[in-house]
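INFO worker-7 received task bundle
INFO bundle size: 2
INFO processing item 0
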Amino acid sequence: MEAHHIHPELLKHKVRVLVVGCGGNGSAIAAGLPYLHQALLAYGHPEGLQVTLLDADVISPTNCVRQPFSRSEIGLHKSVVLANRMNLFWGLDWQGIPQQLSDRQRLEGVDIVIGCVDTRAARAAIQKCTEGRSEVDYWLDLGNNADSGQFVLGEPLNQRNRRSKLRLHTISELFPEIIQSELDGDGVPSCSAAEALERQEPFVNPTLANHALALLTRLFRCGTVSYHGGFVSLSSLAGVQALRVDPRYWQRLRRKAGCRVISKRNPAALANPSPQQDQG
């Protein structure tokens, strides 16, 4: 079995993390990152994490149903609220920026991008910003539907990550349809609490986020991993399939993606993994 080794420079300086999207998955990731920061310091990392949260959305009444926001915060920016909350509780100096990522934006001073977006167009923007002249080390993507989803850690093809046999393929390389914006729906949010819960079960976001954060923790603690993602289902107690570091497996996934008929409402089938969109 092949293995991926962490970029050694990430063990020597502050790890600069950009979280794109502060909805269901993004807020769950944000809540867990301080624990990863504390763990890194305990493991002997010199500086831990420096996190920036990026999201232009404001908190709506529906968000208060299954996201960690209160009715008193309605109308405030999600990214700013989450950053302020973590800074106050943990004594950090992390940043929340109420903006949307542009595909023309150059990501400077970013080591890891964690994508928690809810459209293919937004994923396409992350892909463009992390490839080419970028020096981003990793792109960790999370996506889900009602009760299933996936998390994928990849090394974007850029100035830092050259083409090689064991370069971790990104979500857009394994599942090219995930960045085809013409497949997006109308983007209309849920108009009621009942509809929001119908579209997505309450605990799918923290479950997916915990698996993704556990992967990052293992990578930093052990310096190597044999998997770089997974497919998660809440409908089965044995509902996790690892995404192995295996070029032959990546090729099989890409072949399946090329012939699969895409439907946004199809659940992730563990026997035939397919990418899911975050429902906000």
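INFO item 0 finished
INFO processing item 1
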Amino acid sequence: MVLQKMKAILRHKGYRLFSRPFELNIVGLRSKSTIPNRFDDEIHVFYKVSTLNWHYHVFRATTDPGTFWLRQPMQPQGTAILQQGQFLNAYGMGLHQGKYLALVQTKPVTIIRDYDRDAILDFNNGNKTTGYYGINVHRANRTGTTKTIDKNSAGCQVFENADDFAHFLELCSKHRSLYGNVFTYSLIDFRAVRRQNARYVAAGIGIAGLLGLGILATVNKEKVKSIMEEVGDFFSDIIQTKNENEPQTNNSSTPSGQGRELLPA
């Protein structure tokens, strides 16, 4: 079940799970694809409706900036890309760019800036900074489904479909009426998991190479033991993360939606 897998991911990362009735868990899933300008991510929204029952929604979205802002960043340091993490109570309902209702940033979040000024998403360049950047959660076009991101996002989390976003706002309004205008947004980056796994594999190969060459015979045994235990933990983490981070959206407890949109940051 998608819900159980998502709960496992949140627990694994040490993120909070909200379980009061109609209290929203809003989780962005950044896909492994690095192809720019596509709505190829998802925003999952789930909440408890009774002691044993949850409602679960999946909306198509983007968590990346569009190629327009990648090539022409608003800031000289580059275009903002939200870093994965859980941003507790960092959002509230308000006007996006003063135009229409959305979830807007109210507390600091952490970003990485892509300063290459090309159309390729780069998660290794730039420095991480934390602050107020207008990383909002909003829609793309006013009506219908938007095909490409383009100017619709300079770092925001954007719904692809306008009707999906309207439904999302209805859920937010219910949450606000019960718990106030405070929302938590979590972002899980499957690309970061893949990069981490690649580093772990490289570390494992390096250790194996040392073993094959017999170099370990000259190394302090306690240090070798520590290294091997660390590599074992690495690979255990890979297996656990891979199993947990593959939610199957077709098993949602409610019909999946579609949506996307990002805001200039």
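INFO item 1 finished
INFO post-check item 1: Residues 194-242 form one domain.
INFO post-check item 1: The two ends are 35 Å apart (CA to CA).
INFO worker-7 idle
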